[in-house]
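Before relying on records like the one below, remember that each one covers exactly one chain. Contacts with other chains, cofactors or solvent are not represented anywhere in the record.
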Amino acid sequence: MTEPAGDNREPSVADVPIQLLDPSGRRVEHPDFHFDGTDADVAASLRDMVLARRIDTEATALQRKGELGLWPPLLGQEAAQIGSARTVRVPDLVVPSYREHGVAWCLGIDPVDLLGTFRGTCMTDWPSRPDLFHPYSFVIGTQTLHAVGMAMALQRDGLVGNDTPDANGAAIVYFGDGATSQGDVNEAFLFAASCAAPVVFFCQNNQWAISEPASLQSRVPLYRRAAGFGFPGVRVDGNDVLAVHAVTEWALDRARRGEGPVLVEAYTYRMGAHTTSDDPTKYRPSAEVEEWRAKDPIERVQTYLLSVGAIDQAWLDDLAAEADALGERLRDGCVALPEPHLADFWHLVYANTPDLLVQQRDGYLAYEASFGEVR
């Protein structure tokens, strides 16, 4: 079998990701997108990025110690998640996949609650989950259809295109480059375009769909797929928190005004494994990892803020102490998570439990009574 021909065309200017802060920490201009926040806002984003990374590294270590069954790392994707999450407001709706720990952090979800899902002590409807944040989705791509439905509900509830901008809302849905090959994602694009649904499709293109490179599944940049469905697509430097913020803010504002969907491709890199059950050294060249390490999203923001005097070493020391305290709380909180009582899970499947499940529940309760509590 012969290999398919490669894409030999020259990249267009639009294929170059939008960037407002380069890897050296220098602010750059773009003709169409601007970050209007202050340096204090940038520092707040840096804090969120550092703490999101600490959540990730602690959870990875907990899995390695056997305290979690699995963990999907976000290492390297902090700017894509924090930059986009900080543009969300009520009544927006946020629909994640299973790696959006930084988004969850920004929206106020207790990271200890997140650990329960991966420890197996709870479902995904965490106690601290705000109404605007949908539970994690573990089936690849299905959440895009859910998000379009939610966006269409916002339309029907009169929360799109109002004269009062602050009353308008939109949905933003997160997925990876691998999900773009799923039928559900393409159906979601079609429905969103047909109904002018107020939804932002936020694709974190981290270059690897588990063990396969993005180039294997798409001969053109992913953002270009939007054109085939009739709505805009934008490629942004996913390691540039300022550019991600600016582009996502534009896309959400456009959707809130009733102008339809946008596909944002955040061009980033997964520095860690797909999940902790994966070994990326088996399929990924180390030189590529080192190339992207030089584009670290946290380092560039820190460099910029130090250069303009917005933060100093004392500020960074305080942040490091805050991260250490968060890490300790995660370690203690993880092992203290209450074990689930299996009999309770029958009540979480249906509003009205069918007779067959009632029989199964009663059988389990009888077993539990005979042999003692089984967890």
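Strands lie at 93-95, 171-176, 199-205, 208-209, 212-213, 233-237, 262-267.
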